[in-house]
Design goal:
about 350 residues; 9 helices; binds pyridoxal-5'-phosphate; disordered N terminus; seven-stranded parallel beta sheet; single chain; 19 strands; eight-stranded mixed beta sheet; alpha/beta
Length: about 350
Amino acid sequence: MARRAIFPMQDSCPSPARLILDRNALVSNWEALARISGGAATGAAIKADGYGLGAADILRILYDAGCRDFYVAHWQEAAPLLPLLQDASLSVLNGVMPQDMANPHLHHPAVKPVLNSMAQAERWARAGGERCDLMVDTGMNRLGLSMADIADPLLQKLDIDVCMSHLASADEDVPQNEVQLDNFRAVRSAIKAGRYSLANSAGIALGRDYHFDLTRPGLSLYGGVPRAEMREHIKAVATIDTMVLQVRDLKAGDMVGYNAMFTADRVMRIAILSLGYADGYLRNFTGSGMLLHKNSELPVLGRISMDLIAADISASPDLQEGDRVLCAYDLMHYAAATGLSQYELLTNLAERFERVWV
Ligand SMILES: *Cc1c(COP(=O)(O)O)cnc(C)c1O
C-alpha cells in the first residue's frame, strides 16, 4: 500500500533516544476495539498529542484504518491536524469559551466543538448553531450539561451530530457505571442528535449496552489496558530505544549516581545510557526500570538523572559505546510499580524523543 512519509522528525543525525512506535500494533488495537464495539463506529481520542505519541501520525494511520471520528481537548491542538482530516471529523472536547469564538478554525467544516454547558450552547446557537457535539454529565461532575438541562428547548435549535457522556469509573466494576448508563438513556430520549456515544476504552469492555452508535477509545489504542479482560486484545505500541554512551567496570563498594542510591556488592559492568526524567523516564522508575538487549534483561541502577541512567549489563557484557538498547515500556508493569496511571506514563513521554514509526 502506498504510504505518505510520516517521519518528520528524522534528520541526518539520529537522536540518541527514540520512541519506536508500532503502526501495526496501533491499527490492531483500533481494530480490536472496533470489533468489541460491535455495530458501533469507533473513534480515536488523540488529545495531548496523541497521548504523547504524536497526534498527526496517529490520525493518518487510523484514518487509513477507517477511523473517522477524532477527539482533541483544545482548539490549539486542532489547528495542525485540519489539513489531514479529509472526510473525517475532529471534535474539540473542552468546548467553546468566549475567546474561542474568534478562533479562525471555529467554522471549519470538519471541526465540531463539544458544547459542555448551557452557556456554551447559547453562545454556539447565537453564532449560527452549526453542526456540533454535545456533552452531558451523567454523574462524573466534570464537563457537560447537567441532567437538569436536557429538556431545555434551546437544545432543539442546535444541529447536534454526537450527543455524548463520559464514564467516570469504567475501569472498575462499580454501580456508578449502570447509574451513568441509565442517565445516558434518559439523555438519549430527551436530546435529538445524529449519534450517541458513551464509552471510552474501558467502557468498550463493559459490553454492548455501553456502545450506542460510537465509541471513543484513547488509552487502549496506545497499548493501555484499563481492564484486565482487555489485555489479550491490546498490543504495546511504544518501545523506548536508547544508546549506550559509556561502559564502566565497578568493584564491590563502588557507588552509582546521585545520592549513591546503588552500591555494587561485587565486580560488575554497567552502561550509562541516554535516557532520563527529561524524556519522561521518571525518577519514580528507580528500582523498577528494566532494559532489554537481545534476550537479556538489564536492570536500571540507582537514581535516574535528567538525561542519563545506569544499567547493570552483566548479562550483556559485550555492549559497547554506541550500541542500542530497548526499554519495553510496559504500561501495566510501570503503573503497578510507580503508582502513576497508564495515562500519565504515556503523556509524560517527552517530545525530545525522536519518534520512529515502524
Ligand atoms: C480522553 C477521553 C476519551 C478517551 O478516554 P480513554 O480512557 O483514554 O479511552 C473519551 N472521551 C472523552 C470525553 C475523553 O475526554
